[in-house]
Amino acid sequence: MNERRRPTPPPSSAAGRRRRGGRSRRRRGTRSRLLWPGLAAGAVLVLAGGLALRGASDHSGSSTDTAGASSVTEDPGSHGAGGTGDAPKEEPTASPAKEKGGKDEGKGKGQDEKPDPGSIPPSGPGTFATADGNGARVGGSGRTLTYVVQVEDGIGISAPDVAAEVERILADERGWTADGKVGFRRVSGGASDFRVRLATAGTVDDICGQYGLDTGGEVNCNVGQDVMVNLKRWLLATQYYADDVTSYRALIINHEVGHFLGHGHEGCPGAGRPAPVMMQQIKGLHGCRTNVWPYDADGRPVTGPAVG
Length: 308
Fold this sequence. Notes:
Largest sheet: 7 strands, mixed
CATH architecture of the largest domain: 3-Layer(aba) Sandwich
Distance between the termini: 13 Å
CATH topology of the largest domain: Collagenase (Catalytic Domain)
Oligomer: single chain
């Protein structure tokens, strides 16, 4: 987690004007009969041309509409002095979703649409809705950890939607199950090993603060059984993942669940190398490339030096 410890003109009418006087009508009758065929043919040509132009315009518009835009995200860590995006800005590297083995299956579903920051509620009631249903077990033959997904009431986000995203992240082959020693299964009731809770910054601060952690309204934490996800970070990500919110969400979950599994913070292993998921990337990449998974596509752990 990336928290700080507390020191404890409407259309004109097409109708023609009425002509007055029978003599006038008789004088013009013959000429009108001669002109009508030409006028009718001209109208057909104009109409046909207009339809052709409209068809071309419609085709062009549909092509533009189908061009998607991707977005991305990054994650603050959990346990430690939390940054607020003030770290020196570094050039973002290619998103993990664009690298080999980095295909993000959550793309194209609208999760990356970022709201106006001012519309995000800073606090909430502190009560939660739990996502219904149970998920399938994912992972190797090792121990199975059960978890529930909860969303704070009144923040306008669906608990089932968040649960689906969390399940996808924890089931990824580059996730914590890659070592074959741990599996995960989402439940909706009864006892569970941990809880993933999406909440407003104020509620995250309150819950994390009960354990002596200062999240400063900005970051996430893992305390006890709770993986606390800051709503602001979930929706906006951070500067290094500003174009890939979906990936940043994976970093949040993997980082905080990593703490729950007993993993501590790590540093950058070297310039140009992928940043460990347990690195507090919100505080800077320090020469590393963005990365949101604890293992690479070949099943090798992505690690760095321990940070006290």
